[in-house]
């Protein structure tokens, strides 16, 4: 099997920061969004994280969870996130 490696122009912390900024700017705190809505909806089309790989999104959201700024819940294919 081949190896997989990531090439990012931003690190995970920076991606988390961009998502948190968008949440603040669009008044999404205390709102539940699906991960699909976060990366594929028209609301995020102008954001750099639009179309983000799901694994990278999970890593960025994990940073926000550790900071107490988000909670991820649901099953793998039906996950949502609530921002604080």
Kindly describe this structure.
This protein has 84 residues and is α+β, with helices and mostly antiparallel strands. Helix content is 39%, strand content 13%. It has helices at residues 12-25, 35-40, 54-66, and strands at 32-34, 70-73, 80-83. A three-stranded antiparallel beta sheet has the order 1-3-2. Helix 1 packs across helix 3 (54-66). The longest helix is centred in the first third of the chain and has 14 residues, at 12-25. It is globular.
Query: What's the CATH architecture name?
Result: Orthogonal Bundle
Shape label: globular
Tell me the series of helices and strands, N- to C-terminal. HEHHEE
Structural class: alpha+beta
Low-confidence stretches: none
Fourth-level CATH superfamily: Winged helix-like DNA-binding domain superfamily/Winged helix DNA-binding domain
Percent strand = 5-15%
Q: Tell me the number of helical segments per DSSP (H or I, 4 or more residues long).
A: 3
From the alpha carbons, calculate the radius of gyration and give it in angstroms: 13 Å
Q: Mean pLDDT score, rounded?
A: 92
Q: Please give the largest β-sheet.
A: 3 strands, antiparallel
The CATH topology corresponds to: Arc Repressor Mutant, subunit A
The CATH class is identified as Mainly Alpha
- The total of beta strands comes to 3
| Count of discrete domains | 1
Portion of residues within helices: 25-40%
User: Strand order within the widest sheet?
Assistant: 1-3-2
- Through-space gap between termini: 41 Å
Protein name: ESCRT-II complex subunit VPS25
GO molecular function: protein homodimerization activity; structural molecule activity
Family: Belongs to the VPS25 family.
Pfam families: ESCRT-II
């Amino acid at each position: 099997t081949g190896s997989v490696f990531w090439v990012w122009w931003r690190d995970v912390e920076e991606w988390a920061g961009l998502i948190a900024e968008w949440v603040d700017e669009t008044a999404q705190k205390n709102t539940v969004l699906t991960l699909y809505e976060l990366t594929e909806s028209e609301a995020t089309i102008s954001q750099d994280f639009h179309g983000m790989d799901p694994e990278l999104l999970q890593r960025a959201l994990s940073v926000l969870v550790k900071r107490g700024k988000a909670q991820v819940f649901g099953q793998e294919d039906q996950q949502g996130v609530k921002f604080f």
